[in-house]
């Protein structure tokens, strides 16, 4: 249509912000210049946020991505995002524009409503999932979730056995550690403890994704697309673990090891254990 966005001053400090009203999965964006004018943007950054307060820049190939904009006022430049953004707020930040005109933009955003199950933890609570013994598969375990927090420390996940074996995922100083402890060092003298740390500044109040895949003695630990593969030399196949997993903390303090004992304070989204939607189960039960 006629018109478009054109700020009074054309400089690097302008942006166009959109509130989509709810968290949305954004798959593509398109831009035009100002209608019937010499005002168009030749390159821009895309930023996104859930709250409208703290912002993240769209990245591609591990670097901040500058989008190529328009070469005239009326042609539409459409860009399909390499990976979708899940956010409520978007900001288009012009970097360069037509030297013979001003900043001018018309934009379109493509996507759909993002459906998710979210649960909040206050630092004093945890969610315990008791497994169905019939459905337990000794060969394969897959746990996935997203988390968001402002706290640099907290226990996200814990599973424990009768003989002191335990499996803990914990946030420590903004980094995520996966600790696998084989309690009985006489039975498992070598490799009694495995501690893998991934990520940094994960307490930035943005969503971070976690995936733990355990097949026989092969473990894949993934945080935000960064994966650490390791072998547990056979011992992990024989971990003696109870039929329950606690999310957000450890229900019985001081039962094992020397962990920080700081329960998680923040939000989890879409917790899945071997395909089971844990938050949905908690809501319904």
Could you characterize the architecture of this molecule?
- Belongs to the neurexin family.
- This is CNTP4 protein.
- InterPro entries: ConA-like_dom_sf, FA58C, Galactose-bd-like_sf, Laminin_G, Neurexin-related_CASP.
- This protein is elongated.
- The protein is mainly beta.
- The protein folds into two domains: 98 residues, Galactose-binding domain-like (Jelly Rolls), CATH 2.60.120.260; 167 residues, Sandwich (Jelly Rolls).
Summarize the structure.
It holds the Pfam family F5_F8_type_C. The chain is an all-beta fold and 285 residues long. It is built from one helix and 21 strands.
Helices and strands in order, then pairings?
Blueprint: E1 16-32, E2 41-49, E3 56-57, E4 59-60, E5 63-64, E6 67-68, E7 77-97, E8 106-113, E9 118-122, E10 127-130, E11 140-149, E12 154-160, E13 166-172, E14 175-181, E15 193-198, E16 208-215, E17 218-223, E18 226-231, E19 244-247, E20 265-273, E21 276-277, H1 278-284
Task: Write down the overall geometry.
Answer: elongated
Number of strands: 21
**Strand residue percentage:** over 45%
Question: Count the helices. How many?
Answer: 1
Number of domains: 2
Could you state the order of secondary-structure elements as H and E?
EEEEEEEEEEEEEEEEEEEEEH
End-to-end span in angstroms? 51 Å
CATH architecture of the largest domain: Sandwich
Percent helix: under 10%
Pfam family, one: Laminin_G_2
Domain Laminin G: 118-285
Keywords: EGF-like domain, Membrane, Signal, Transmembrane, Transmembrane helix
Protein name: CNTP4 protein
């Amino acid at each position: 249509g006629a018109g478009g966005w054109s700020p009074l001053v054309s400089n690097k400090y302008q942006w166009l912000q959109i509130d989509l009203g709810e968290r949305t999965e954004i798959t593509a964006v398109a831009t035009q210049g100002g209608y019937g004018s010499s005002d168009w943007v030749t390159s821009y950054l895309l930023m996104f946020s859930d709250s409208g307060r703290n912002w993240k820049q769209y990245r591609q190939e591990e670097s901040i991505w500058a989008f190529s904009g328009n070469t005239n006022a009326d042609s539409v430049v459409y860009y399909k995002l390499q990976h979708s953004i899940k956010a409520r707020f978007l900001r288009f930040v012009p970097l360069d524009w037509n030297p013979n005109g001003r900043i001018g933009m018309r934009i379109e955003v493509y996507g759909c409503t993002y459906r998710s199950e979210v649960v909040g933890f206050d630092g004093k609570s945890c969610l315990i999932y008791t497994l169905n013994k019939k459905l337990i598969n000794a060969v394969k375990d897959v746990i996935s979730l997203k988390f968001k927090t402002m706290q640099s420390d907290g226990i996200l996940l814990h599973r424990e056995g009768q003989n002191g074996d335990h499996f803990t995922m914990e946030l420590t100083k903004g980094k995520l550690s996966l600790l696998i402890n084989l309690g009985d060092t006489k039975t498992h003298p070598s490799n009694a403890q495995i501690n893998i740390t991934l990520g940094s500044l994960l307490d930035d109040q943005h969503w971070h994704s976690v995936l733990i895949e355990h097949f026989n003695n092969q473990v894949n630990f993934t945080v935000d697309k960064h994966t650490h593969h390791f072998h547990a030399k056979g011992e992990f196949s024989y971990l003696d673990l109870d039929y329950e997993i606690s999310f957000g903390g450890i229900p019985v303090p001081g039962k094992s090891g020397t962990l920080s004992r700081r329960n998680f304070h923040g939000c989890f989204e879409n917790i899945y254990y071997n395909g089971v939607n844990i938050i949905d189960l908690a809501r319904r039960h």
